[in-house]
Amino acid sequence: MLKKLLLGGLLLVALVGLPLTVYIFQSQTKVATHASGGTTLSLIPQPGPGSSIEKTLSDSVPVDLMVDPGSNAVTIIRLQIRYDPTKLTPTVGSPFTPTTDFPTILDGPVVSNGTISELLSVGADTSKAVTTVKKVGTFNFKATGVTPAGIPSIISFTNQTQAFSSGANDQAAENILTGANPATVTIISIPPTPTLTPTPTLTPTPTLTPTLTPTPTLTPTPTPAQQITTFSVTAFLHGIGNSGDNTNPNAFSLSNKNPNRRSRNITLSIYNSSDQHPALYTKTGQVFYQDSDGNFQTDPNVPISLGVVLPTGDYIIRIKTDSFLQRRVPGFVHITPFSPTIPLTATLIAGDPNFDNPNDSATLSDKLDLVDYNMIIGCYSDFAPPTFCDDVKASQTDLNDDGRVNQVDYNLFLREISNQSGN
Q: Could you tell me the residue ranges of all domains in the chain?
């Protein structure tokens, strides 16, 4: 009878322990929701291929970081791992060695309180996005403490770890990471014994990411007929509100819905139907963010006035605002001397913080280039302070206008660079 009670108790403990173990792992590593083909990161102690290894005290402990992109095109990995500093010590000066597939370290590595944090990138060329299983780099440790019998030291990912993609089905701010597999290291003070059988690692199941339904754009109310030519403007800014980006223009559920700068200067340049330069007229006004529509609009009561009467004809109109490329309003805009306030709508491309906008030049040359890229890198700040930045540059390089220059702005720039110039 006593034996049966003992067996029953052990079974109950096992049944309770299993879901608790799953809960602990899931709470340690929070992953993103992604419809399908999500990205997985894994830590593999050398020489691999398993996730567990046994080392002797004072041995070097290299741990490879592997990425399985799934169906994504991975360009950025925001990385933070946790380790036991009483058992492992990162190599001074080189805690992490990147591979040529992820050669750019934008931020870090920062070693602090048992964590290593950094942001890795394939660089400015999105054609080098990772689409197959690759080794990202190697963490370099030294075994400095013996692990208790049967209790290996765990190297795991924290919930700060994310991955980003340049893929057409993703968004600039979308974390595509759906799995993060840790590694374990057993450290002994005597010559190694046979390697322990690795414990299977549970991988969280990805869930669907809901997509917001776009809110219809408000139609500006016409003002009474007047002779002086006036315009109302609706501007969609990539990465903000209801606007995606060049790679995926129709997905904007993760675009910033609460921009810091809720009013912006907007410049209109008016050209004749032959698109002769310089512009016939250039006029600056203000647009205001509309929460309900996810775009910027002029005040219906304060349209942008040219101060003159434009003769009847078809015109080309271009729109520009800070940090975004100049864009042409689609088609020709027909204007008469008695036209009511004329509505203009355009979608602007992010990533031009150095404002190389040629409103009145004969050749349009505003573009996304290395100068813009370097400005963003100089103001990038996540795990460590920015390297070369001030308040003005920080505002200019905060492309999605959320008050931070981080991996979202950097990824947005990479996704926008497919369109090199304005029009």
A: 28-188, 230-416
The two tokens of residue 354 are 């150095």
Count Cβ atoms within 10 A of the Cβ of residue 377 and give its class: 0-12 exposed, 13-18 middle, 19 or more buried.
Answer: buried
| Domain 230-416 in CATH 2.60.40.4130 | yes
* CB hemisphere CA count around 193 (13 angstroms): 9
pLDDT in tens, 286-329: 999 999 999 999 999 999 999 999 999 999 999 999 999 999 99
Neighbouring CB atoms inside 10 A of 233's CB total 25
Higher model confidence: residue 240 or residue 363?
240
Between CA 281 and CA 279 the distance in angstroms is 5
Cβ atoms of residues 249 and 237 within 8 Å: no
- The answer to whether domain 28-188 and domain 230-416 are alike in fold is yes
Residue 296 and residue 286: Cα distance in Å, rounded?
9
Cα–Cα distance, 180 to 44 (Å, whole number): 12
User: Do residues 116 and 110 lie in contact, with contact meaning Cβ atoms separated by under 8 Å?
Assistant: yes
Joined together, the tokens standing for residue 171 give: 């968004």
pTM over 0.85: no
Indicate the burial class of 108 (C-beta count within 10 angstroms; 0-12, 13-18, 19 or more): buried
DSSP 156-220: EE-TT-EEEE--TTS-TT---EEEEE-EEEEEESSSPPPPPPPPP---PPP-PPP-PPPPPPPPP
Q: Which amino acid is residue 326, in one-letter code?
A: Q
Chain centroid to CA 182: 24
User: Which one, of 314, 309, 335, lies nearest residue 228 by Cα?
Assistant: 309
> Domain 28-188 class?
mainly beta
Using the structure block, give the residue that is written with the tokens 């698109």: 275
How far, in Å, CA of 68 to CA of 44, rounded?
Answer: 13
Query: Phi/psi at 104 (nearest 5 deg)?
Result: -100, 120
Is residue 49 reached through a cis peptide bond, with omega within 30 degrees of 0 on the bond before it?
yes
* Nearest alpha-carbon partner for 88 in 45, 119, 50: 45
Q: Identity (one letter) of the amino acid at 251?
A: A
